[in-house]
Specification:
Blueprint lengths: L20 H8 L3 E5 L2 E4 L1 H20 L3 E2 L5 E3 H6 L11 E4 L5 E4 L4 H9 L10 E10 L14 E11 L2 H21 L5 E4 L9 E8 L5 E5 L6 E3 H4 L13 E15 L1 H6 L2 E3 L5 E3 L1 E8 H11 L1 E2 L2 E2 L10 E5 L4 H16 L4 E3 L7 H11 L3 E5 L1 H4 L3 E6 L6 E4 L3 H5 L1
Parallel strand pairs: 3-7, 19-20, 19-21
Antiparallel strand pairs: 1-2, 4-6, 5-6, 7-8, 8-16, 9-10, 10-13, 11-12, 11-13, 13-16, 14-15, 17-18, 21-22, 22-23
Length: 412
Amino acid sequence: MLQSQLFAKTKKEAPKEAEVISHKLLVRADFIEQSSSGVYRFLPLGFKVLKKIEEIIREEMLAIGAQELYLPALQNKNLWLETNRWQTIDPPLFKLKDRHQKETALGSTHEEEITDIIRKRVKSYQDLPFSLFQIQDKFRNEMRSAGGLLRTREFLMKDLYSFHTNEKDLTDFYQKVKKAYFKIFKRCGLFPICVAASSGTIGGELSEEFMVLSSEGEDRILICKKCGFAANVEKIGEKKNCPKCHSALEKKSCIEVGHIFNLGTKYSKAMGANFIDESGKSHPIIMGCYGIGLPRLMATIVEVYNDEDGILWPKEISPFQIHLIPIENTEKVKKTSEKLYQNLQKAGIEVLCDDRDNKTPGERFAGADLIGIPMRIVISERTLSKNSAEIKKRDEKKMKLIKLSQVGKYVK
């Protein structure tokens, strides 16, 4: 894409209310902007990153056999009354009345909706197991929003739900999801710790969180360096010694990027979602639930990958792979840059070409560092005198002169 046509205006200053680095950089680079407290607009650069994260998640969910669906944001009050969560869920629901004065709510989670679907369709053990997922907006009536995308009131989330006849089958699938989550996070450049967690108002018999160590994180975990035990303080309290090996525990701040639950039969019992086994007996369906908040994941990546100049996007989720900058307005530089731009695009490489004539080289380089595309290619009369392009990786200080004929191969 030509940068003169990109709908983005970078800023020198972060908003006064921004405290964490991801909030500051994502706003300054014009990936996002705040609409109201805890609600954000994703501008073209931010939306490209969000969609790439979404596609990684989708690919890994499909790879473990899950099927995608889409559930409503406006939820049926009667379903929430069946589980007794209409009044008790925390944070409380955003509730509203339609023109007929019927109450409804904006969905903060979808256990009731998904259980209603399966109880109408699952009759026999032969219908199980299976898993369903969606990527959809959630609405959380938080007491306060903080940290830009780290704690918001409206956000995109992936929910996966699984349905089983027995605990062993659920445990096997739970472990499969756990492995898929580590793949997702690795593809996004993150290496979280999986810790024992509280199930909160979602409930269930077991839950674990995926935590990325960060000084900006609101969560606190306890880690045993000797045996590897890790748990959220919310789960085990302020213990000083490891419950497994009795060694000293170390407290760390972190950001939660994923949460998985063994729900057991909490929702199937409450809503009458049963199956008939081989002997003709009826049993409640055993369920699992697995979530990832996409905007928070995006912000966490920026918390990990940044420097004093801006963002350093991991390659797979960067809005573009190459930032091409012709820094002189001569015919030779223009023609060479245009040809390289076309060739890279034909090779399937996403390129942002800074064709703006009203910016100095220093302004262009500063903007490129702020946006954080993994590789910068500069074309100038100096580089062309050596029949080359100057290439610099965003996370490296050194620049390389690469022959124009070899640029495509080097980039790949």
